[in-house]
Amino acid sequence: MLTGHLTFGRVVRDARTLQGIAQKTLAQLAGIERSHMGKIERGEYTPNLIEIHKIARALSCSSGDLLTATENILASTQNSSKQLMDSQSVS
Predict the structure, then answer these.
(1) Model confidence at 65: pLDDT above 90
(2) What is the rounded CA–CA span in Å between residue 24 and residue 46?
(3) I need a surface site. Which of 11, 51, 71, 72 has the fewest CB within 10 A?
């Protein structure tokens, strides 16, 4: 099951790669160490609100955009898991 920090990292990585930005470049634009950005993308570190804001600005979007995308993925995953469990309990 996906967790919030892992999902947020995937959203950041997907947005970065969609824009053709290297991880090192995103880290520089956001003012975050490249190794730290890697930990965020891998879900090994949960960024604070200031870091989320910096990442969003570097990606030319809002913090809300990143958080909403994360929330939507988590909700979708939870709904899929619930449907699977419900279907197994009926059998």
Answers:
(1) yes
(2) 18
(3) 72
The span from the CA of 16 to the CA of 59, in Å, is: 7
Burial 5-28 (b: 16+ CB within 10 A, else e): bbbbbbbbbebbeeeebebeebbe
State the amino acid at position 8 in one-letter form.
F
In a domain, 69, yes or no: yes
Domain of 31, CATH number, reads 1.10.260.40
**DSSP sequence for 43-59:** TSS---HHHHHHHHHHT
How many domains, the chain?
1
Q: Is 59 exposed, middle or buried (0-12, 13-18, 19+ CB in 10 A)?
A: buried
